[in-house]
Amino acid sequence: MSTPKAMTTPRALRSRRSNLAVPGSSPKMLEKARGLVADQIFMDLEDAVAPLAKPEARKNIVAALNEGGFDGKVRSVRVNDWTTQWTYQDVVEVVEGAGPNLDCIMLPKVQTADQVVALDLLLTQIEKTNGFEVGRIGIEAQIENALGLINVDAIAQASPRVETIIFGPADFMASINMKSLVVGEQPPGYDVGDAYHYILMRILMAARAFDKQAIDGPYLQIKDVDGFRRVAGRAAALGFDGKWALHPGQLDAANEIFSPRQDDYDKAEMILDAYDYYTSAAGGAKGAAMLGDEMIDEASRKMALVVSAKGRAAGMARTQTFTPPE
Ligand code: GLV
Ligand code: MG
Question: What pTM was computed for the model?
Fold first, then answer.
């Protein structure tokens, strides 16, 4: 029997509105990433790095992580997937070399829960051997083909290290033979809806069922910030927590789109305070109460908690406060 959600312990909620991809083969880009406004930096050893450049890229990444300067950012490294010959060396070299300065390993092209378990076991051995805190390093699981998608529920539950489920649209489109070369845009000939809706929702349901973050992948037309906004806006509207950025020019848009609007954030905090007050003895121990013209109850509190958590994680400050009636 699977574990009910209330019995699983969620890991700390990190803000991941913008996830900047940085090729591990470029010390210059690794250096530049420190000063950018990304919530997360992921240093790539996979598709942005040519096979011959991978050994050097591992060294660059270890050096960049140990040098530091990524304060406040989530630091992730994308290794190669388990069907290649590189994964174990990627993990061993990066984690042994820079484990305490690393937050997550991103595993691409995850197809089965076993692949996550294998990474979990390897991480645990490296942590034990090197005296690192066991279990601290998280796993980000990227879903990039049909098998990964149909197994996404098991993948989300495969290890308590899993923090995010990420959609990899470019590989996914290729793997299902979608008739389009433009990532994020609708395939020509399909004019009756959003061709990505099912995939995004499937990932989102697994993420929400097991307290993981849902992250949308890249938008490749890096000069088209309006296009990025449109595609990011759809994922954000469904409930996704963030999106990749392939270029610094996409960061402001991602941070804005995946943050609550200021008035929604203020309202969420007011609902939480008002609900706390009205359910207390001083407020009359009520189950439902009025906040302005709106009736609030336990379900309102749950919705407010989501917006409030996202706003707090993004460092937002409230501009209104709730004052109990005289
Ligand atoms: C990202 O890895 C993608 O395939 O879209
Ligand atoms: Mg990919």
Answer: 0.90
